[in-house]
C-alpha cells in the first residue's frame, strides 16, 4: 500500500515543525490513535491505534521510530506493531516534507506500508482505500490544528 498527498498548511514551516513534535496534538490528528507516549525524545514513541478495516476491527500497539529529522523540512518515521487478536502485523513508513508556500507550508505526505495476517487477506484494494482515507483525514486534522 502506498499513499501520497500534498496540501498547504496555514503555518510557517517552523511552526508546523513544532506541531509535528507535539505528541498530544499529533496524536489527535491521527485517526484511530487512542494514545501516544514519548519513550525517547525525538527518537522513539509508543502509540495505540484502533481502526475498522472492512469487517475487521484492529487494535494494535505501535512502536514509532524516527528515521530522519531535518528541521524544519523533512521528517521520516517507521511504525510497526501486531494485533494478536486478529493476527495482523502492521509495518509502515511515513515521510513528511515541508516547503514554504507564501505564508504557509506545502506539505507532502508519503506513506507506504505492509499488512500481513488475516487483515492482509482482505485484499489490497480494501487496505489501500482505508490507508487513503486515513492519510486524508490526518491532513484535514493537521490543517485545522495548525490554525488553532
Fold and architecture overview:
By secondary structure, this protein is of the alpha+beta class. The protein has a single domain, classed as Alpha-D-Glucose-1,6-Bisphosphate, Chain A, domain 4 (2-Layer Sandwich). The chain is built from three helices and seven strands. A seven-stranded antiparallel sheet has the order 1-7-6-5-4-3-2, with helices on one face. Helix 2 packs across helix 3. The longest helix has 24 residues. It is globular, with a radius of gyration of 15 Å. The model has no long low-confidence stretch (mean pLDDT 93).
Output the keywords.
Alpha-D-Glucose-1,6-Bisphosphate, Chain A, domain 4, globular, alpha+beta, 3 helices, 148 residues
Question: What does the secondary structure layout of this molecule look like, with pairings?
Answer:
Elements: E1 2-9, H1 13-20, H2 23-29, E2 33-40, E3 44-53, E4 56-70, E5 74-83, E6 88-101, E7 104-117, H3 124-147
Antiparallel strand pairs: 1-7, 2-3, 3-4, 4-5, 5-6, 6-7
Helix pairs in contact: 2-3
Amino acid at each position: 500500500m502506498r499513499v501520497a498527498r500534498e496540501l498547504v498548511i496555514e503555518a510557517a514551516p517552523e511552526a508546523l515543525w513544532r506541531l509535528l513534535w507535539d505528541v498530544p496534538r499529533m496524536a489527535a490528528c491521527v485517526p484511530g490513535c487512542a494514545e501516544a507516549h514519548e519513550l525517547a525524545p525525538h527518537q522513539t514513541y509508543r502509540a495505540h491505534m484502533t481502526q475498522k478495516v472492512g469487517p475487521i476491527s484492529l487494535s494494535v500497539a505501535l512502536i514509532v521510530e524516527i528515521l530522519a529529522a531535518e528541521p524544519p523540512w523533512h521528517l521520516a518515521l517507521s511504525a510497526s506493531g501486531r494485533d494478536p487478536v486478529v493476527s495482523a502485523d502492521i509495518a509502515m513508513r511515513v515521510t513528511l516534507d515541508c516547503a514554504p508556500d507564501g505564508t504557509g507550508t506545502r506539505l507532502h505526505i508519503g506513506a507506504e506500508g505492509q499488512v500481513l495476517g488475516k487483515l492482509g487477506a482482505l485484499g489490497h484494494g480494501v487496505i489501500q482505500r482505508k490507508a487513503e482515507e486515513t492519510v486524508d483525514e490526518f491532513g484535514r486534522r493537521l490543517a485545522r490544528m495548525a490554525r488553532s
